[in-house]
Write a structure and sequence with these properties.
Bound molecules: 2-phosphoglycolic acid
Helix content: 25-40%
Structural class: alpha/beta
Radius of gyration: 17 Å
Oligomer: single chain
Strand order of the largest sheet: 1-2-3-4-5-6-7-8
Largest sheet: 8 strands, parallel, barrel
Distance between the termini: 7 Å
Strand content: 15-25%
């Protein structure tokens, strides 16, 4: 069975204390179970909690990869307030680029996003490139694509899994078969409908990933799907 990805995007949420509480809640549960190899968990967190979470994940030896949600298009240097890809070396494995909230609220253009993807690749970061349609330009180097229709993000109205599957299929065909994930109002209840589609390799989860209980339920759903197919 192909790997299945659960990519949590915390967006602009959680103080350090809140992030530690979340982690403690999942740590005790996850330490007790062995995840099937196909289940891949990526936690995309704010920069402010990334270092401390990385330390915690390492110490507890949990099968979680760490990601961040943005990176500068510029190299290290005199760019006040920016976090360059180089600065993320040894900290994050993944970076989200092109999320629709960054395109909408921060006016990030395809050109700037391509520069970010190039900078990320040069520093060895794996890009999760976000698009809201199969027609959106995608650079050559992402590790995976996250398809998120704007109407589904944060609205409670996830796209129909069959429709999402057909867009993911087009994205797969256009992009050398790199994994394509679906995101937009995925919850512990709707996750399975997406993961059982043939062209969808996983899900991106925002709101529902903030709650450790829901997050663990999603990990369980993924694990049982993989175990059933072994
Ligand atoms: P949502 O966000 O799950 O809260 O809809 C998904 C995302 O934007 O990554």
């Amino acid at each position: 069975m192909k790997p299945l990805y659960l990519m949590a995007n915390w967006k602009s949420n959680k103080t350090i204390d809140e992030a530690m509480t979340w982690f403690s809640a999942i740590e005790s549960h996850m330490a007790k179970r062995t995840l099937p190899d196909q289940v891949k968990i990526i936690l995309c967190v704010p920069f402010t909690v990334s270092a401390i979470l990385q330390e915690k994940i390492k110490k507890s030896n949990l099968p979680i990869s760490l990601g961040v949600q943005n990176v500068s298009a510029f190299p290290s240097g005199a760019y006040t307030g920016e976090i360059s890809a180089e600065m993320l070396k040894g900290l994050a494995e993944f970076v989200l680029i092109g999320h629709s909230e960054r395109r909408r609220y921060f006016h990030e253009t395809d050109e700037e996003l391509f520069q970010k993807a190039k900078a990320a690749a040069a520093s060895g970061l794996k890009t999760i490139y976000c698009v809201d349609a199969a027609s959106v330009p995608i650079p050559d180097m992402p590790a995976m694509i996250l398809y998120e229709p704007q109407s589904a993000i944060g609205s409670g109205n996830a796209e129909d899994p069959v429709v999402a599957n057909s867009v993911c299929k087009q994205l797969l065909e256009k992009n050398q078969s790199i994994p394509v994930l679906y995101g937009g109002s995925v919850t512990e209840k709707t996750l399975k409908g997406f993961l059982t589609q043939p062209e969808i390799s996983g899900v991106g989860v925002g709101g529902a990933s903030l709650d450790p209980e829901k997050f663990l339920q999603m990990v369980d759903v993924m694990s049982s799907l993989c175990t059933d197919h072994q």
